[in-house]
Amino acid sequence: MKQFITTFAKFILCAFIMYCGILFVWGRTLSARFKPNLYYCVAAYGHTFSRLKEVKTKKNIDILFLGSSHAYRGFDTRIFEKNGYETFNLGSSAQTPMQTKILLKRYLEKLKPKLIIYEVYPATFTIDGVESGLDIISNDYNDLGSAKMALELNNIKIYNTFLYGTYIDFIDLNANYKEKRRKKYDNYIPGGFVERDMKITKIKTYNQSEWVFKENQLLHFEEIITYLKSEKIEVKLVYAPIPKSKYKSYTNRKEFDSIMKTHGEYINFNENPFLNDSLHYYDNDHLNQEGVTIFNQKLIELLKSKK
């Protein structure tokens, strides 16, 4: 029996090494359409690579922004700088609490923010986190936090991308990579903000629906709040503006508000609308630059009124 276990363990080890070798060759040589279960794409969208490269140069800031694309497209670091705040935007596309926790564990100690503004978009509590997980694995270094995330997500694309990403980290292949600041309609602004070319859009109408929150994402969120309290860092939870027609289509808005209010100071900028759906959005989710400016000024007024 002991001989069998030893032989089996050797077989598993050899198979794993062979699998990794094939994976690395597969990842380096084939185009994306031939590797549907491997998504390692540096600087694919949202300027995550630039943001996670720049954050390593920052320390001792006033405000740290966290959250989804509503964060990195919604909090303009230039506007806050003009008002005397040194900030950094650590948002990323479809960032769920699972990925927020990983980024905080990596960078909070160095950034030492006086205040965290955590953009809490309800939809990020309803998704598994695979999209954001792939984004973080591809654009940041991989550590034990990445491994734990891969195990929790239990997704073949995540596993493959994590193994491949760990190999890329080991040989330091991206050390000299530079992402273009200007990409199509987007412009990366130092501090983590992404400015979209000015545009307005026709907002859709929506049928009524409700968010179905995932228990594990709510648990990660609770752990984030507990962690920040233990670090004695002030946190403001902010539900950034979305088009009124979309916001009002959700029937359990009060339920989400109630969850947020039990975890700290919460500001829902959708309950007292000050933006125009026809003028201040570039798509059915995100503010255009005029909308961002108005929203940020409102937020700064609240921050200064509570000093």
Low-confidence residue ranges: none
| CATH architectural label | 3-Layer(aba) Sandwich
Shape: globular
| Level-1 CATH class name | Alpha Beta
How many distinct beta strands?
8
Discrete helix count: 12
Under CATH, the topology can be stated as Rossmann fold
Strand order of the largest sheet: 2-1-3-7-8
How many angstroms separate the termini? 70 Å
Number of domains: 1
| Radius of gyration using CA atoms only | 21 Å
Mean pLDDT rating: 92
Largest sheet: 5 strands, parallel
Within CATH, the superfamily carries the name: SGNH hydrolase
Helices and strands: which structural class?
alpha/beta
Percentage beta strand: 5-15%
Order of helices and strands: HHEHHEHEHHHEEEHEHHEH
- Percent range of helical residues: 40-55%
Task: Explain the overall architecture.
It is a single chain. The chain has 307 residues and is an alpha/beta fold. The chain has a single domain (39-129, 174-305), classed as SGNH hydrolase (Rossmann fold, 3-Layer(aba) Sandwich). Helix content is 46%, strand content 10%. It has twelve helices and eight strands. The protein has helices at residues 2-29, 48-54, 69-72, 77-82, 97-111, 130-139, 144-153, 156-171, 215-230, 244-247, 253-261, 289-305, and strands at residues 63-66, 87-89, 115-119, 182-183, 186-189, 193-196, 234-239, 265-268. The strands form two sheets. A five-stranded parallel beta sheet has the order 2-1-3-7-8. Strands 4-5-6 form a three-stranded antiparallel beta sheet, with no helix packed on it. A hairpin with a 3-residue loop joins strand 5 and strand 6. Helix 1 packs across helix 8 (156-171), helix 5 packs parallel to helix 9 (215-230) and helix 6 runs parallel beside helix 8 (156-171). The longest helix has 28 residues, at 2-29. The mean pLDDT is 92.
